[in-house]
Design a protein that fits this description.
Elements: E1 2-6, H1 13-27, E2 30-37, H2 52-78, E3 82-89, H3 92-102, E4 107-112, H4 117-122, H5 126-133, E5 138-142
Parallel strand pairs: 1-2, 1-4, 2-3, 4-5
Length: about 150
């Protein structure tokens, strides 16, 4: 079984990774840990010229994300999980779906941050985008604590 796990490398990703750790061991699954770096218009050649310092900052940020991703991969490997990292630059939903197709993924796992309705209306949601467009099953792991509100 192939499981593609999309993470944003925030603290919320830890809940997703804990769940995937148990799931992948139970299923003896191959895990692909994916981080989609937001596209930088200067990096892909669609922006006006940028000072070298800005380009250096973008490159340094990409390097830091690669190191963070590798750190998470190393932790999972030390638990006996067969896992490989994938770091791609692009729009998260598109990257997740493209990689899932390439890898012939059996399951996609994403986290849900639990933003409010206005946020979803204005910005959308990666988990919703993947859920509605994926051709394979999608597991959405809540990464926030819900508290009941009294009316």
């Amino acid at each position: 079984m192939n499981i593609l796990v999309a993470v944003d490398l925030s603290g919320a990703s830890q809940k997703v990774l804990q769940y995937v750790k148990t799931l992948s061991l139970d299923l003896s699954a191959k895990v692909w840990l994916l981080y989609a770096e937001k596209p930088d218009l200067g990096f892909v050649g669609f922006g006006p010229g940028r000072p070298q310092s800005v380009l250096d900052h973008v490159a340094e940020d990409f390097k830091e994300k690669r190191e963070e991703l590798q750190g998470e991969v190393d932790k999972l490997k030390s638990s006996g999980i067969d896992v490989e990292p994938i770091l791609v630059q692009g729009a998260a939903v598109e990257v997740i779906l493209d990689e899932a197709s390439k890898l012939k993924t059996d399951l996609i796992v994403v986290g849900s941050h639990g933003h409010g309705a206005v946020y979803h209306l204005m910005v959308g949601s990666v988990s919703e985008g993947v859920l509605h467009r994926s051709t394979c099953p999608v597991l959405v792991v809540p990464t926030h604590d819900r508290t009941e509100q009294k009316n």
